Amino acid sequence: MRRSTIIVMAAVFGLFILSWILRSTSLASVQEHYLIGGLKVTFSAFLTLAILSFLYKDNPFYKFAEHLFVGISAAFWMSMGFWTTIVGNLIPRLSRSLSEFFQVPYQPGSYNFVYFIPVILGIMLLMRLSSKYGWFARWPLAFIVGTFAGLNFVRYLRSDFVEQVSATFVPLLVGWQGVGHFVSNFSLSASGQFVAIVGNWVIFLGVICGIIYFFFSKEHKGAFGAASRVGIWILMITFGASFGYTVMGRISLLVGRITFLFRDWLNLIS
Amino acid sequence: MLDTAFSIPLVALSDIGRVISLLVIGGGLLWILIRSLRAKEVDRRIVFLFIFIAVAAPILFPITFQERATLIVKRVFDKVESSPAGSKVLLAFDFDPAMAPEVQPMADAFSRHCLEKGHKVIFMTLWATGQALLTQSLERVVRGEYPDKLDGVDYINLGFKAGNENVLNIIVTDFRMMFPTDVNGVPLDSTSIFDDVKSCKDLDLIIAIGGGKPGVKEWVLYIGDRVNVPMAAGVAAVVAPQLYPYYPKQLLGLLGGVKGAAEYESELVKWYPHLKERGTPGLRMMGPQTLAHMVVMAFIVIGNISYFISRRRERIQ
Amino acid sequence: MPSHPTTSRPSHPAMLLILFTFFLLPCIVLAQTEVGQTNIEGTPIVPDSEQIVAAPVTSLIAADHKYDDGEMIELSWVPSIDDQLVDGKVIGYKVYRLEDDGEPQMITELAPGSNAYNDQSVERGKLYSYFVSALSSNAETPSVRTAPIEPQREWLNYELLNVLIMALVLGGAVIYFIETARRGKKLFVRKIAGLEAVDEAIGRATEMGRPILFIPGILDMDDVQTLAALTILGRIARIIADYDTKIFMPVSRSLVMTAGRETIKASYQAAGRPDAYSDDMVTYITDEQFGYVAAVDGIMVRERPATVFLLGAFFAESLILAETGNSVGAIQIAGTARPAQLPFFIAACDFTLIGEELFAASAYLSGEPKQMGSLKGQDVGKAIAMAAILIGILTVTIGDSWDVEWIQNITTGLTEIFSTK
Amino acid sequence: MKRQVPLIITFLIGMIMIFSFFIPPLEGLEQTCSLFFDVIAVFAFFLGGGNLMRIHINKLRRRKKDWGFSIVTLGGFIIMLAAGLLKIGNPGGIAASPTTEGALLQEIFTYVFLPLQSTMYALLAFFVASASYRAFRAKNREATILLIAAFVILLGRTPFGMMLTAWIPESFSVLQVPNMAIWIMNSPNLAGQRAIMIGIGLGVISMSLRLILGIERTYLGDESA
User: Fold this and answer.
1) Cβ contacts of D209 on chain C, cutoff 8 Å
2) How sure is the predictor about C19, in pLDDT bands with cuts at 50, 70 and 90?
3) Boundary of a domain, candidates A122, A147, A167
4) Number of neighbours of residue C45 by Cβ within 10 angstroms
5) Residue C40 has pLDDT above 60, yes or no
6) Contact state of D159 with B65 under an 8 Å Cβ cutoff
7) Does A229 touch chain D (CB under 8 A)?
């Protein structure tokens, strides 16, 4: 390790220990375990800053945070899955004594033996860890793919195809009251006929041209090509709108983090 | 509580702070613009720094704006408001800590509104990381602010189950098959809130709060379209545009991002003024949001200016 | 269920078939299902004179819930005339049930103003009859009893018949064109911009001697986008094996790791270079979205790939990955069917497969008949959608503006076919 | 055995799932399959944990680059796993929810997991800005359209949009920026989203069908294995 690296590391650690001491003293009047309380907040702040430091460039602090994150998150998912599904849903159906051990209400049933099937499939999945019997893992894989292919087939058909088609049946003339009325009111309110009618025309043409853009088996030229070009424009408006709409959400995440640093760690705001 | 003698210089201080930060941001942008006019790109780290300042400054020196509920938000509010007391409302907390700053304000507003109205609330989540958040927010909002509401009677926490949309696929016909007990191991049969609730069909309103997958889309696909129960949603801004096709037929209303939350909060404090003291995080967040928005827009403009200038130079050469 | 008048004249025989099956069959089925009507013999209990007596509920009907496995009976009634908000005598209702003519048992208590209840605690093969009591502060007035009714099991959910028919039509079209293509008929697929660049992008990595990074999204094997990404991976890995470039694929699901290894291994074998394959090419990181992103970002800045493929289901990480990839100077080819992330890919990557293009890409790359055929089948679906939208919009417009009844009927019919609630 | 059985399983399960959607008596079967899947999904988490251990132990053993950090990963993994599976420090004992306040799992979640995850997510705010500066340029007609739409929505979501165009009379209110933003969301955005949705829907449908019928089988690897 280079000397400058060691100096930087030492300085950072020094600062965080200082922050720990300061934070603990300020917590001393409120908390019993103020030393631990101070350490927890300081460590959180350290991790927050370690990730943010990646914006400058890759560094050992980021690497530390990254590797810690990977380890902790994998274990978190395992623990939650074990307690909620294995203990919560499987054991009550399989064994009375285990149910008593884990203190979950046993659910007797004459067909409960079928719940051994997922256990067997699950164990086959774990065989993937062995290189010799790894191919057993294809069975549960096939089960999962089959389940979701089936589920998705009907649900997408219904909600994203069938329902969307009928939702597009919009009138191209909304309560037509003559040209004078049409061109005199450009408001977004219910009385603004122009906006409503143009909006529906845009929906009509937009959906049709958009679908034409996704037509793969016909060459996009001539009138078809023109429609497909309009389609991509509509898609671009959609993407632009999505982007604009999203920026705000992304900013709020940073607001959350900075608020944590200023309030919980540095005590700058209340 | 601050003394009046103290608060005057503090107000002045935050005013000065606001002015200084605006000057820093404005001046900096001008500097970047001038650099761009000379066809020099700025390093992305400088862009990062600007966003940081634009967000941090209004947090230190708060700026607030007024909000008014738009129709798509108002419809959700009106539905909760007009349902008779005792209606069974399901609140799905399908988000993780990362998304929480954006959608937690909505979740809090929905919880408060439902409890104020005397609805019976069922909490659940499809995200493993959501359960820990759900625990925290029940502790804070439900047990902290409404201590007289009873677990199992006025509200219940079903917690998390693994399986994503599969969980929905089961509770659409039977809650107890998926959730034999609530999160604390209490059998559903022994709770009065589940007395005449067998499946999602028996609910009066479903509000899904989310932003990822599984999220609101899965709720619409697996529950909303299958049962005749009105459904509303609060989502992270990023997914709101793609949920618009579901409104108003499949979703009665939609809160998109912090702005949606701020609009809902403004409506909520208008009807229930005492909720104002409990905090309006959505409204408060609009300050930093607005400033950061302006910076992002400025960057788009500057980026394009520098693009056109460099293109013209190329053409001349 | 509104019956469909005969005034509409669908021109296509398929349409006629759809209309027939969808409207006529349910009517027949509806006519057959039994409804337990109010039994006139029921006599109300005569109460004491001091008691506050509320009038009983009337028109109590018990009916089998349609299209289920015999799990529910629906009760509906007209509330008591004394059930009013102000000065109403009724404080609630009790629902009683008699199982196989046994003793009445209260099954639920409802608030004033209620006029319906779904009994879901019934079993097939038993007869149930019901009565509802109006409660006043100190008395109960039962209604007449319904005739016994048995919950029915239905074998087909006719409410979803239109979806079933659509499934058959679309499925049939896909299978038909796959068969056509297999028999050797050449099918056309339009150019997909992003894919033209695949060869070049791989070539670039080879020239620069830097690795290729393949990110298959963050969802599991249960998402079709992941499967589409793996199919494309199969083609890409084949080219990579030929070029002898390094490929690296960090994944966030262990099943995807399994499948990814199988896929790449198969491609290397097909290219005749099984020795060049190693399991290290595909690594599992963590199931946690941002833990995965943190690690992949780290990999990007440390390995500095020349080419990055971001194909599959992406969420918030899309822009984090794409911007980091851009900052290390990689050529990036992205594709997802998540509309929310497309703008970021379009902005930050060099080429983007938009939505369905991701699914079409594997067909385009492979040129296999089965894939081409299914693309053609999908286009049939699009044609159906477009035709329906066109007719629907025209008839809605004409029907609304000029009040032509038979045109309005076409609209209603079409809406029925394309809606499920 | 290695290839045929998986294909048969996919076909059978897929068909059950499709038909149970239309045939009420099969609903129970569909739900049992769903529950099976949930259990298998948990085993997949375990497989993930196993793989993680294997990869990092390998790295340690072979002293690969940055092997020291593998200790961090393994340490974090083992501590969290113990905290979670043994419910260490859970005030409610074995019956309580694993995320009860005060449990070690919940503590690590709040003070380690949460800051890491939310900060990683918050990086997006920075990348949105750098992408706006670098990538949102009017290079061609498509990019220009995207840019304009994004700009109008951005402006419409801030109070400045209102301030700038408040002078526009009510009868032209669609030209006020916030209203323009709403109109874009409700009309062209909706149209585009719907077109994408229908396309993807069909893509999913045909892909699912190919999987169920065993036409698509890349995910199983190729014939030879």
Assistant:
1) 171, 174-175, 374
2) very low
3) A167
4) 11
5) no
6) yes
7) no
Whether the predicted pLDDT of D120 surpasses 90: yes
Across the interface, whether the CB atoms of C287 and D45 are under 8 A apart is answered yes
Beta carbons of A208 and C390 less than 8 Å apart: yes
> How many Å lie between the alpha carbon of C262 and the closest alpha carbon of chain D?
4
Ordered structural domains, chain C, with CATH? 36-142 (2.60.40.10), 190-366 (3.40.50)
> CA of A37: how far to CAs of A46, A268, D2, D107, D180, in Å?
14, 18, 55, 11, 50
Helix (H, G, I), strand (E, B) or coil at C209: coil
Contact residues for A4 (Cβ-Cβ < 8 A; gap 6+): none
The residues spanned by each domain of chain B are 4-64+284-316, 71-271
- Smallest Cα distance from A219 to chain D, Å: 17
The minimum CA-CA distance between D93 and chain B, rounded to whole Å, is 11
Partners of D52 on chain A (C-beta within 8 Å) are 70-71, 74
| Backbone dihedral region for residue C113 (phi beyond 0: left; psi -120 to 50: alpha; all else: beta) | left
Note down the domain range covering A17.
Answer: 3-110
Q: Tell the CATH superfamily of the B71-271 domain.
A: MTH777-like (3.40.50.10160)
CB atoms within 10 A of CB C342: 27
Nearest to A159 by CA among A148, A149, A167, A147: A167
CA distance A226 to chain B (A): 25
Q: Chain D contact for B225, CB < 8 A?
A: no
Note whether A44 contacts D112, CB cutoff 8 Å. yes
Asked if the peptide bond before residue B214 counts as cis, ω within 30 degrees of 0, the response is: yes
Q: What is the pLDDT of residue B8?
A: 47
Give the list of residues 6+ apart from residue B199 with CB closer than 8 angstroms, or none: B171, B172, B173, B174, B175, B227, C120
User: Low-confidence residues of chain A, pLDDT below 50?
Assistant: none
A136 touches chain C (CB under 8 A): no
Q: What is the pLDDT of residue C182?
A: 87
| Nearest in space to C251 (alpha carbons), one of C310, C335, C303, C210 | C310
Q: What ipTM goes with this model? A: 0.84
